[in-house]
Specification:
The complex is a heterotrimer. In chain A, strand 2 and strand 3 form a beta hairpin. By secondary structure, chain A is mainly α. In chain A, helix 8 packs across helix 9 and helix 8 packs antiparallel against helix 11. In chain A, the strands form two sheets. A two-stranded antiparallel sheet of chain A has the order 1-4. Chain A is built from 15 helices and four strands. The N and C termini of chain A lie far apart (51 Å). By secondary structure, chain B is mainly alpha-helical. Chain B has one domain: ABC transporter involved in vitamin B12 uptake, BtuC (Orthogonal Bundle). Chain B is built from eleven helices and four strands. In chain B, strand 2 and strand 3 form a beta hairpin. The longest helix of chain B is centred in the first third of the chain and has 31 residues. By secondary structure, chain C is of the alpha/beta class. Chain C folds into two domains: 163 residues, Rossmann fold (3-Layer(aba) Sandwich); 80 residues, no CATH class. The longest helix of chain C has 20 residues. The model of chain C has no long low-confidence stretch (mean pLDDT 93). The chains are: A mainly alpha, B mainly alpha, C alpha/beta. Chains in contact: A-B, A-C. The interface between A and B is large, with 48 and 46 residues.
């Protein structure tokens, strides 16, 4: 069942990418939206929608990171830190931890703002750094943030985190134990993220990012404020992650520091790399594929193998291998990802020539 | 005072291990401008190879008398060879094709290799730390107010001997000179007849060998090996390399010892749970305020 | 009215003196050429004007305003655009997008406009695209709007880079060896293009090696040698100037 949803969504994405007719594209988007909104009433169960809601959160995270990596060309290896900041915002402000029970809807926006603020705080001193160095600095930040949450036991519950988070309500109706509200919220979130991503790509700011990615010095000569543009990318990208964090924490009703380690950042980077950095639709496909592999395919293969060979192998141990293989395989053999946008494709295939005159 | 000296000794010991790993980062970065993210896992691999040899020899009852010395030598050499070959293999299979790719591609690939290695080592050795055979006797020696273990002395001595050997190798040998030439200007080096591919491969081999030594001494020093050891140690060592000035061999050694001290003293003074925060804060601060490191030169931007 | 004014400008790189005591005025509406042997300091001069380097002595003002301490992007906002000796186009973007980046300083859409695709953003984008198409026509490369810059021929890339620089409607346009690598007929068209640019109200300052082109095109020429200005004047004066002849032909025996 989960595959039906995933395949429909992926097929629609591929179709959107292949059609050039604007109307056809719009029609597919609307059809897909209608399908994802209505089909759950007839088809599926809570387990499926739980996975789909998680998948939707990852799509949002990937779209956010795509703004930083794909649009602005800045490799952020600590993206999970903003996810943690979003999740802990909910965990600390909507739980018995401090007896504060701020509404879920307010915290969605607060978390976005806080994550953006931290994105800017991290970015302001570090965005002068280039390429690899920036990547490593963000990695360091990504390691520090969960560690701080872990160490400030008095406020954050330490290594155990905070449990029994509030169940959100919608005009007085509690979400209860159902996963459907999260699924629908995440769908709306994706729609918003897609809309914003497209707006940005076509905008003055999006062109500035393109220029910075392609040739920072030439961008500066065109009067582009490089630092501010990069900061905007960092802050906007982080805010997506902040919102994703609130959704994630509310659905799980739990936050703990081990949920936001380096492997989460690398997972999101893998989604981008798999789908095609910079291409909005590609990123959606990449994140759907990886989430499905992680949450559905691997466990199923696992139980199949165990049932057939009467073993108790734990294939969930293979996540690192899968992410690693995706990163290496795609970079070596198809650097533009599965669904590239045309700029990135050209960039990655001609980079050798450019290196000569750099 | 007593505690201070003990932490100092501890820091030197940690620092020696980090310095050995840091040298691998710095050699590779110097020649390719690539952060070999998988380097920490090459270190882990070396640790496990040494561990495997020692466990095997112990089971065979070979670790007595002269056999003990031979066994330790065998484990050390095996770790060196295994790590060196692994590192060179990674270069050949994963990085070589990407030499002209955009700068982020090799780094992303290196992260991928690191994840794969970690997972493979986990599948091979399990997800729990494995005790490292306690082969080097560890009586405590009292030198004035300073109390050190024999193991600590061996670890530091081995690391220092390795580093001195590396220094002479890079300064004196033909290959060392070729490495420096390629690091300076790859095209020019190839014009004067240096085989660039081979030199880069040899650099990875040497970097891997250093990680192998680190793997052995790290195993002895920490008393265990763990599939994720390389991630934390690798980041600390990379921080050390950056702190000293990446690409700079003396800098990597200096940085290694400084980071070892930082870890040791931050653990003592503010608690082990903050040492990660301390180390990564140093990483960020150095990169932001002095990206050329303590011993590196600031190069003007090319236009 | 002086668009550009250098007084006693000096620049050293370590022990090497790249420029020393250079004084220069460029009048509004001029086509001004800077020539000199390789290593004379011409490119260094351009790099000072766009704040790639900081000068050590003297002062530089643009439109009467000192640019000391200003960043590259601030100087661009003052109305200084440039091209590069070794072309620096956004290779993996369309020709149209390249020119639209050039218009960056003319647009006012802020981050919020960009996020929400507001009316201002849409309106500006439409206008920017229209102007970009016109500019591509103006420099003589229409029909390649959607092609990637890197796939264009060398001559087209040179023109595209000029179009990108012009897109900011600069008052001062710096051209770094615009004729390098062009064939004679392309050079001929370049001369007309630069004249048309000047006639459009933009002052042009160019570095060039092709002596014939400089003599034909520029109204005023300054000659640099070993970082010093050894002559300045009209093409006729420069051609006969003894120090210039010496610099180019070597010291008389």
């Amino acid at each position: 069942m989960i595959y039906t949803y995933a395949l429909v969504a992926i097929a629609a994405c591929v179709a959107i990418e292949r059609f050039h007719n604007r109307r056809a594209k719009t029609a597919i988007v609307l059809l897909l939206a209608a399908f994802l909104a209505i089909a759950p009433r007839f088809y599926g169960n809570d387990a499926v929608f739980s996975v789909l809601a998680d998948a939707a959160v990852y799509v949002m995270l990937a779209l956010g990171l795509n703004i930083v990596v794909g649009f602005a060309g800045l490799l952020d290896l600590g993206y999970a830190a903003f996810f943690a900041i979003g999740a802990y915002t909910y965990g600390m402000l909507a739980s018995p931890q401090f007896g504060l029970h701020l509404p879920f809807w307010v915290l969605l926006f607060l978390a976005a703002a806080l994550a953006a603020l931290f994105g800017a705080l991290l970015g302001a001193p570090t965005l002068r750094l280039h390429g690899d160095y920036l990547a490593i600095v963000t990695l360091g930040f990504g390691e520090i943030v969960p560690q701080i949450f872990q160490n400030l036991t008095k406020y954050t519950g330490g290594p155990n985190g905070i449990a029994a988070l509030d169940v959100p309500t919608f005009f007085g109706h509690s979400f209860g134990a159902s996963v459907m509200p999260y699924y629908y919220i995440a769908l709306v979130g994706i729609a918003a993220a897609l809309w914003i991503s497209r707006n940005l790509r076509e905008s003055r700011l999006g062109r500035a990012w393109m220029a910075i990615r392609e040739d920072e010095l030439a961008a500066r000569h065109a009067g582009i404020d490089v630092l501010r543009s990069k900061l905007a990318a960092f802050a906007i990208g982080a805010s997506f992650s902040g919102i994703g964090g609130v959704l994630f924490a509310a659905k799980l009703a739990l936050v703990s520091p081990d949920l936001f380690g380096f492997q989460v950042s690398v997972l999101i980077v893998s989604m981008l790399v798999l789908g095609g950095m910079g291409n909005i639709v590609g990123v959606v496909v990449g994140s759907l594929l990886l989430t499905i592999v992680n949450s559905a395919l691997l466990p199923q293969i696992n139980s199949l193998v165990d049932a057939t060979f009467h073993t108790t192998i734990d294939l969930s141990n293979l996540h690192f291998l899968i992410y690693g293989a995706i990163l290496v395989g795609i970079m070596l053999f198809r650097p533009e990802g599965l669904l590239p946008n045309r700029e990135r494709r050209a960039e990655l295939h001609h980079a050798g020539e450019a290196a000569g005159d750099a | 005072m007593h505690e201070f000296l003990a932490q100092l000794a501890n820091g030197v010991e940690l620092g020696a291990i980090y310095a050995l790993i840091a040298l691998g980062y710095t050699l590779v970065y110097g020649i390719l401008e690539l952060i070999n993210f998988a380097h920490g896992d090459v270190y882990t691999f070396g640790s496990f190879v040494a561990l495997g040899i020692l466990v095997g020899l112990r089971a065979a009852g070979a670790l007595h008398g002269a056999g003990l010395i031979l066994g330790i030598a065998a484990a050390l050499i095996a770790a060196i060879l295994a790590s060196a070959l692994l590192n060179a293999g990674i270069e050949r299979l994963a990085y070589r094709r990407l030499r002209k790719a955009p700068r982020l591609a090799p780094l992303i690939t290196a992260i991928g290799v690191s994840f794969m290695l970690e997972n493979l080592i986990e599948l091979w050795q399990g997800s729990a730390p494995v005790p490292f055979p306690n082969v080097i006797p560890n009586p405590q020696l009292q030198i004035g107010a300073l109390e050190v273990g024999v193991q600590q002395i061996v670890v530091v001595a081995l690391a220092i001997v390795t580093m001195i050997a590396l220094h002479f190798f890079v300064q004196r040998s033909k290959l060392g000179k070729a490495m420096r030439a390629v690091a300076q200007d790859r095209d020019a080096a190839s014009l004067v007849g240096i085989n660039v591919d081979r030199t880069i491969a040899m650099t990875f081999l040497i970097a891997g060998a250093l990680a192998g030594v680190a793997g052995f001494v790290g195993g002895v020093s920490f008393g265990s090996a763990w599939f994720l050891n390389g991630f934390g140690a690798g980041l600390r060592a990379f921080t050390a390399a950056v702190l000293g000035g990446i690409g700079n061999i003396a800098g990597a050694m200096l940085g290694g010892f400084l980071i070892g001290m930082l870890e040791s003293f931050s653990t003592w003074l503010i608690g082990g749970q903050w040492s990660n925060v301390a180390v990564f804060s140093v990483l960020i601060l150095v990169l932001v305020f002095r990206p050329s490191g303590l011993l590196g030169e600031t190069l003007p931007e090319k236009v | 009215m002086k668009v550009l004014e250098l007084v006693g400008v000096g620049k050293r790189f370590g022990a090497l003196t790249a420029l020393s005591n250079v004084t220069l005025d460029v009048e509004e509406g001029a086509i001004f050429g800077i020539i000199g042997p390789n290593g004379a300091g011409k490119s260094t001069l351009f790099n000072l004007l766009t704040a790639i380097y900081r000068w050590d002595e003297g002062s530089i003002s643009i439109g009467g305003l000192s640019i000391a301490g200003l960043s590259t992007q601030r100087i661009a906002r003052l109305g200084v655009s440039r091209t590069f000796q070794n072309l620096r186009l956004f290779g993996n973007a369309s020709a149209l997008a390249n020119v639209m980046v050039g218009e960056h300083v003319l647009l006012e859409a802020n981050v919020l406009d960009s996020l929400l695709n507001t009316g201002r953003e849409r309106r500006e984008r439409t206008e920017a695209e229209k102007r970009a198409r016109e500019l591509l026509r103006f420099v003589g490369v229409s029909g390649v709007e959607e092609q990637f810059a890197r796939n264009l021929s060398y001559g087209t890339q040179r023109r595209l880079e000029i179009a990108r620089a012009l897109a900011a409607r600069p008052r001062l346009l710096l051209l770094d060896e615009p004729a390098a690598g062009l064939n004679p007929s392309e050079k001929h068209e370049l001369v007309s293009l630069i004249r048309a640019i000047r006639d459009g109200g933009t002052t042009v300052l160019l570095i060039e090696h092709d002596m014939g082109l400089v003599m034909n095109l520029c109204e005023r020429i300054a000659v640099l040698d070993y970082g010093e200005k050894i002559a300045e004047g009209e093409p006729r004066e420069i051609r006969e100037h003894p120090r210039v002849i010496e610099a180019y032909l070597g010291a008389p025996a």
